[in-house]
Amino acid sequence: MHADKTPQYAKLKAGVTGKDLLEAVVRSGYPLQATVAETLKEAAPKGRWRGEIQEEWAYVDRDSGQVRALDVFADIPLSHSAEKEGEFQTRAKLNTLIECKQSELPYVFFLRHDPPQDSTAFPEIVGTAGPDVRVFPSLGSDGTGPDFSYLMSVHDALACHEFEIFDNPPFHAISLTKAARHRGGKLELTGEDAYRSLTLPLLKAADHLIGVSDSRDRKSNPIRFIAPFAVLDAPMIGTVRHEGRNVFLALPWVRMSYLEPFNDREAWNQASSRVRYFDVVHASCLEKYLHVLFDGIQKAADRAMECGPQLKEGVAVIDNGEEYSPLKSLEEDRRQYLDWEPAGRIFRQSDGHALGFLEGAEFGEEDILTIGWNL
After folding, report:
1. Could you state, in order of their start, the residue ranges of all structural domains in the chain?
2. What is the spatial distance between Cα 295 and Cα 165, in angstroms, rounded to a whole number?
3. H-type helices in 94-161, by residue range?
4. In what order do the strands lie in the sheet with 150-153?
5. How far apart are CA 189 and CA 106, in angstroms?
6. What's the chain's Rg over C-alpha atoms?
7. Which superkingdom (predicted)?
8. Number of neighbouring beta carbons within 10 Å of residue 194
9. What pLDDT score does 265 carry?
10. What average pLDDT score do residues 14-23 get?
11. 171 alpha-carbon distance from chain centroid
12. Contact predicate 234/105, CB 8 Å
């Protein structure tokens, strides 16, 4: 007989086997979280400043005051792509806030043909004077300038719609649900689970980060691009009404919208609800998504660093036209007009995307159409 040399700390009890443990670990989702963190680390820009990626990132719940944890957080300093950051006083950072979930049952997105608003607001931009810039038209050929001004969002002032991650993606959803089996094995949809496990953690973590950023000195604080998104290892199925019936689409990337009231930080003369966003990406497409994210954020950050003084003050002169032009500081002789109310709000029109179907396309109501990444 051979004595059992297995140490006490390695002995499984209560009938538990290694196979049981493996199945429990896989179901838990922790391996997905580790994979997402590693993928993010490999894809992050390799600038002169080292970024930080942290799992189980702690934040304070704005409603309960309790400390909670987000799956993956990244704080990535951004250098100017032309290596000109020494010329600018303003710094920029990208912060990703990520929740990871896996399920054998699908998540179901209720899609709309058009985005909820024309002007993009994802990722969120903080560290500026506010969400808007008060812009004055540029001087005329005679060297004089108008005495009126408008409000323009920071996103529009930087013409962020020119970059794919900011521009409206093809698929917008107003509701997110998760399929679950109830008594009798019947499949039902629940919005509560998805709301509490994805929407609330992502937006509350973003609120915590925004609050920390706003509490610091505005001039020295970096401009932050805050991108909350979920990574799912689960079927992602969108549904949309078409010609009086439901159409199902299997999707790699969806932008979720969530409406909430405006708060004190928000812009002047807004009556409609504030639209906030987070993205949902399938785990198999995470690398492609991160490429689009980092590329667009880098280009927007270049512009933000170049226009830092104007964004920090919240006042600028802007050239006419839809295409981007750098913001300029307001001349001293027109600063007297800052006491006047803005004349209104202006937008840069995004080409965006709208969901549509080819005329005469035929498919059954129970069919699930597969959408590839090259949208």
Report:
1. 29-370
2. 8
3. 154-157
4. 150-153, 132-137, 315-318
5. 9
6. 24
7. Bacteria
8. 22
9. 46
10. 75
11. 14
12. yes
